UniProtKB/TrEMBL annotation:
GO cellular component, one term: cytosol
Catalytic-site annotation from UniProt: 156, 160
Binding site for (S)-2,3,4,5-tetrahydrodipicolinate: 157, 166-167
Protein name: 4-hydroxy-tetrahydrodipicolinate reductase
Domain Dihydrodipicolinate reductase C-terminal: 127-262
Organism encoding this protein: Blastopirellula marina
Lineage: Bacteria, Pseudomonadati, Planctomycetota, Planctomycetia, Pirellulales
GO biological process, one term: lysine biosynthetic process via diaminopimelate
Keyword NAD: yes
Residues reported to bind NADP(+): 62
Length: 264
C-alpha cells in the first residue's frame, strides 16, 4: 500500500519540489497540499503550481482525507499548524522548517510522545554525512596542541528568512559537543581582539538563488581542514523528506533524525 502523504507549505520553493517528486513516486500517494489561505495561488491545482500539470489536488487549508504522514516546509507559524494537524490525524510528522522559536520546538518534542516525528534542519544525504565527518574531526582535534579554530560559513538564496541556517547551527552544536565549546558568535566587527579557541563563529552569506552550501573550517597552526557540502538544486532536500515520510509512517511515537532514516 502506498504511504499517504500530505504536504504543508505546498506552494513554496520546497513544497513545489515535493509535489513534483512525490507525484512520480509509486510508493507514495499525495493526498493533501496545504497552504496559507492568503497565498496568491491558494485554491489552485498544486501540480500546476509546481509545473508538473494538473493533479486534481488543490492548495487547501483542511481535508477529511486520511494521511499517514505530513511533511512541513513552511514558516514557524505553519510548522506549528503542521504539528497540530499531525497529532489530530495521528499521522507521522516530517519537520523540515528552520528558524523555529523555543515554543515551537517544545511543541514538536511534546508531539513526539504521541506520534513519530522526523526532525532535521537538512534532509540531504550529503549534509547529514558531513555532520558525521565533522563529529569525527571535532573529536580528533579537541585537544590538539595550539588549538583548532572552528568557523562555519553558509551561503543561501536571497529569499531565505532565517539566519544563520538551521543546518549551520546544527553543525555548530554537534562540533561544540565533541570539543567542549560553549561560546557561539555570529560574525565579527570592530576590534574583538585575538580569537579565543573556545568559540564557534558563524557567517551567513545571502546571494541570488543559491540552494544551500556549508563550509566547516577547522583551522590549526600550520594547517587547515575545510569540509564543504553543496546542493546543486533543492531535490536533495525534497527526496530526503519523502524518504523520511515513508520511514516514519507507522513507526512508534518518538523523535527520529535523518541518521535513522538514512541508516548513517
Ligand atoms: N530541512 C531541510 O532539508 C530544508 C531544506 C530547505 C528548506 N528548509 C526550510 O524549509 C522552510 C521553507 O523553505 P522554502 O524555501 O520552501 O520557503 P518558501 O517561503 O518558498 O515556502 C514556504 C511556504 O509556506 C507557506 N506558508 C506560510 N504560512 C503557512 C501556514 N500557516 N500553513 C501552511 N503553509 C504556510 C508559504 O505561503 C510558502 O508557500 C524554511 O524554514 C527553510 O529553511 C529546510
Ligand atoms: O533554502 C533554505 O532555506 C534552506 N534552509 C535549510 C537550513 O536553514 O538549514 C537547509 C537548506 C536550504
Amino acid at each position: 500500500m502506498p504511504t499517504k502523504v500530505a504536504i504543508n507549505g505546498a506552494a513554496g520553493r520546497m513544497g513545489q519540489r515535493l509535489v513534483a517528486l512525490g507525484c512520480q513516486d509509486e510508493s507514495l500517494e499525495l493526498v493533501a497540499c496545504f497552504e496559507y489561505t492568503g497565498h496568491p495561488k491558494f485554491g489552485k491545482d498544486a501540480g500546476e503550481v509546481a509545473g508538473v500539470g494538473e493533479l486534481g489536488l488543490h492548495l487547501i487549508e483542511k481535508t477529511d482525507e486520511p494521511y499517514d504522514a505530513i511533511i512541513d516546509f513552511s514558516v514557524p507559524e505553519g510548522a506549528h499548524a503542521a504539528v497540530e494537524r499531525a497529532v489530530a490525524a495521528k499521522a507521522a510528522l516530517v519537520m523540515a522548517t528552520t528558524g523555529l522559536e523555543d515554543e515551537h520546538k517544545a511543541k514538536i518534542r511534546e508531539a513526539a510522545n504521541v506520534i513519530p516525528v522526523v526532525w532535521a534542519p537538512s534532509m540531504s544525504t550529503t549534509v547529514n554525512l558531513t555532520m558525521k565527518l565533522c563529529e569525527i574531526a571535532g573529536e580528533a582535534l579537541k585537544d590538539i596542541p595550539g588549538g583548532a579554530d572552528v568557523e562555519i560559513l553558509e551561503r543561501h538564496h536571497r529569499f531565505k528568512e532565517d539566519s544563520p541556517s538551521g543546518t549551520a547551527l546544527r553543525f555548530g552544536e554537534l562540533i561544540a559537543d565533541k570539543m567542549g565549546i560553549t561560546r557561539h558568535i555570529h560574525g565579527r566587527e570592530g576590534r574583538p581582539g585575538a580569537r579565543p579557541h573556545d568559540e564557534i563563529a558563524y557567517h551567513a552569506i545571502r546571494t541570488g538563488d543559491n540552494p544551500g552550501e556549508h563550509t566547516i573550517i577547522f583551522g590549526l597552526l600550520g594547517e587547515t581542514i575545510e569540509l564543504t557540502v553543496r546542493a546543486s538544486n533543492r531535490d536533495c532536500y525534497a527526496s530526503g523528506a519523502l524518504q523520511a515520510a515513508k520511514f516514519a509512517a507507522g513507526k512508534k511515537p518518538g523523535l527520529y533524525n535523518m541518521n535513522d532514516v538514512l541508516g548513517l
